[in-house]
Design brief:
The structure holds 2 protein chains of 2 kinds. By secondary structure, chain A is mostly helical. Chain A is built from 11 helices and 2 strands; from the N terminus they run H-H-H-H-E-E-H-H-H-H-H-H-H. In chain A, strands 1-2 form a two-stranded antiparallel sheet. The longest helix of chain A is centred in the first third of the chain and has 30 residues. Chain A is globular. Chain B has a domain of 238 residues. Chain B has 13 helices and 4 strands. Classes of the chains: A mainly alpha, B mainly alpha.
Chain lengths: 289, 343
């Protein structure tokens, strides 16, 4: 029963990992850069929600109405002010800039909020659960968080498949110069992509912060788990990323069921095994990303 | 300093002198003399300075080694790693394990620990090299986390709480600190000179080509993966030396700090601020970082904020860093050749 429980919890957690990873993949797909500040930005969103809760008494769900647009706006500004410039500086510059940014934001959070662990309070809802059988219960909140992850990923997929902007993003991902010749304003497109990525990561950050505790350094593991979900699932495939998140979540759950210290390690080992045996991931996309 | 003659039989217009291809120049000769003088002073330093100064300077030497190694990876190999703390940690723990648990002489244990780092890096590179660019960066970080989590499980080296280096206990602190200082100075000099010689060699030329365009380098016959793997293994051994230096200096190793990603942040900031892709850059960057760390010490974590902002601004505005301000007119470590008029 313990094992089944670990698998179920892992699947639910995987949805959230995939949600963080979706933004990482989107930015990589469109601009070919890996935003190393992605994880710490999720944590920033969680702290934003924490402030709204402390000062205005807002529930984390309500805070999403403010945090998500604010993070999206931050993404737009960040792309225009910093990352566009970094993109012109060659291959290394975006990595150096986003890593520098991650260290700056993390230490600003540390100075502002201290290293104390925090947790967003979703109220009585946080503890409620559905008892399936004896000893196996699914919490309402983890279920909702996973559902939110799946919904956002499905929405993102529909956006990329059906809208004009989404089509422009796929075109830019395939061939940036050709897309530009077809009249696509790639700087605006980049800013929109980063805005969407930070909007989704804000949702992920608030859910992760309500699910378990966080502190200013939590961005590191958030980034690593998202990255592992992307690689396990296969670069460039949104549904692959969801599968990757679930595999990672289950591995962590099973590892932790053996010994709490092995949870994260088990996730890493599964990632390394996939990298060794199936470097293109479990569900590789037809187009190489 | 060495002239290369144009190929025999090359035709040139009558009455013109052949151009001279040279490496180095006055700045390199003056620089070499100055650097020998600085090293000589540093060697003599323990006879006229406090123990605190020596301990501080070992910190600076480790920054020099770390910056030089990260520059070798990113500036010459084109690989951004944020997981070098894996090898800093293996070097530090290796020293403690070899000296305390196996009874090896600690000064011998330091190079052995570095060799262990290289041996670990070699198979690891096959996994890491399946990723490129930013994903390679995070991949190295995952590997570092795996190493940290595994070491935390080993009771022989104190598991989660760490271990102390007790092998020096028979030694008078005055001698111990001076010996560790000399060892660290030697390591820093050997590492910088080693990278200089590597970059002057055929491999160095291949690495420069790979950094500028890996596809073009491969089609010109450069064994890209082999050259990158060599760099990765060498950088791992170098970071292992730095880790062993740090532990020999502080006498304590603890998984949370020796495997901290802050080391990667430091290395990146040192290289970016000093100037990526030059041998002088990390030296300048290490000194600047060391001074900043000292002056901003009372600001706590604000110093990482300040240094981070400086690094981001430099990357965007002056990507060649502080050493780039010399615009290539001053070369302490001449690597490339220049063509100029004879005379």
């Amino acid at each position: 029963m313990n094992t089944v429980n670990a698998v179920v919890q892992g699947v639910l957690l995987g949805g959230l990992y995939a949600l963080v990873a979706a933004g990482l993949s989107l930015v990589f797909g469109v601009m070919r850069i890996v935003n190393l500040a992605h994880g710490v930005l999720a944590v920033l969103a969680a702290y934003g929600s924490l402030l709204l809760g402390e000062h205005l008494g807002w529930n984390p769900f309500l805070s999403l109405l403010v945090v998500v647009p604010a993070m999206a706006a931050l993404g737009y500004a960040l792309q225009r002010a910093l990352l566009d410039r970094a993109l012109r500086g060659g291959e290394l510059a975006p990595l150096l800039v986003t890593f520098g940014l991650a260290i700056v934001i993390q230490n600003l959070l540390l100075e502002t909020f201290s290293a104390d662990t925090q947790r967003l309070d979703v109220g009585a809802f946080g503890g409620a659960s559905i008892e399936l059988t004896d000893g196996l219960a699914i919490g309402w909140f983890p279920l909702l968080a996973a559902a939110a992850g799946v919904l956002v990923i499905a929405g993102l997929g529909q956006f990329l498949a059906r809208t004009r902007t989404g089509r422009a993003m796929r075109a830019t991902s395939d061939d940036q110069e050709a897309a530009q010749l077809m009249g696509i304003d790639n700087r605006r497109l980049y800013a929109v992509a980063t805005a969407i990525a930070l909007g989704t990561v804000a949702i992920a950050g608030v859910f992760l912060g309500s699910r378990s505790t966080f502190d200013p350094s939590a961005g590191a593991t958030t980034l690593i788990f998202a990255f592992e979900a992307v690689v396990i699932g296969g670069l460039g495939s949104l549904w692959g990323t969801l599968l990757g998140g679930v595999v990672l979540g289950v591995a962590q759950g099973l590892g932790a069921a053996i010994d709490p210290a092995y949870g994260v390690l088990a996730g890493h080992l599964v990632f390394l095994a996939v990298l060794a045996v199936r470097p293109r991931g479990l569900l590789p996309s037809a187009v190489t990303a | 300093m060495t002239g290369v003659q144009p190929a025999a039989g090359a035709t040139r217009p009558a009455g013109t002198t052949p151009p001279k291809v040279r490496r180095g120049g006055r700045s390199a000769r003056i620089g070499a003399v100055a650097m020998v003088a600085v090293v000589a002073v540093l060697v003599y330093l323990p006879f006229m300075s406090s123990r605190g100064t020596q301990i501080d300077l070992v910190g600076l030497f480790s920054l020099v080694v770390l910056g030089t190694m990260w520059n070798l990876l990113a500036g010459y190999g084109g690989m951004i790693s944020i997981g070098q703390q894996a090898f800093i940690g293996i070097g530090g723990y290796g020293l403690v394990y070899l000296a305390t648990n196996l009874g090896l002489d600690p000064f011998l244990a330091v190079p052995v620990a570095a060799v262990v780092c290289g041996l670990v890096a070699w198979p690891t590179s096959y996994l890491a090299f399946r990723l490129t660019g930013g994903y390679f960066a995070i991949g190295t970080w995952v590997i570092a986390e795996v190493v940290r989590l595994l070491v935390t499980q080993v009771d022989a080296v104190g598991a989660g709480s760490g271990a102390s280096l007790t092998a020096f206990s028979g030694l008078d602190p005055v001698f111990r600190i001076a010996y560790v200082y000399w060892m660290s100075l030697t390591i820093a000099v050997v590492v910088v000179l080693g990278v200089y010689l590597l970059m002057r060699s055929r491999t160095g030329l291949a690495l420069t080509a790979i950094r500028d365009d890996p596809t073009a380098a491969a089609s010109s016959g450069v064994a890209v993966d082999r050259a990158k793997r060599l760099v990765y293994v060498v950088a791992a051994a170098g970071c292992g030396l730095a880790g062993a230096m740090i532990v020999a200096n502080t006498l304590r190793v603890q998984p949370g700090s020796i495997f901290s990603v802050d080391y990667s942040a430091m290395m990146i900031f040192i290289v970016v601020i000093g100037g990526i892709g030059t041998i002088e850059g990390p030296l300048v960057g290490a000194i600047v970082f060391y001074l900043l760390q000292d002056t901003l010490a009372e600001l706590g974590n604000w110093y990482l904020v300040v240094v981070g902002v400086v690094a981001v601004v430099i990357t965007l505005v002056a990507p060649k860093g502080l050493w780039g301000l010399t615009r290539g007119r001053v070369e302490l470590f001449p690597v490339g050749y220049r063509v100029g008029p004879r005379g």
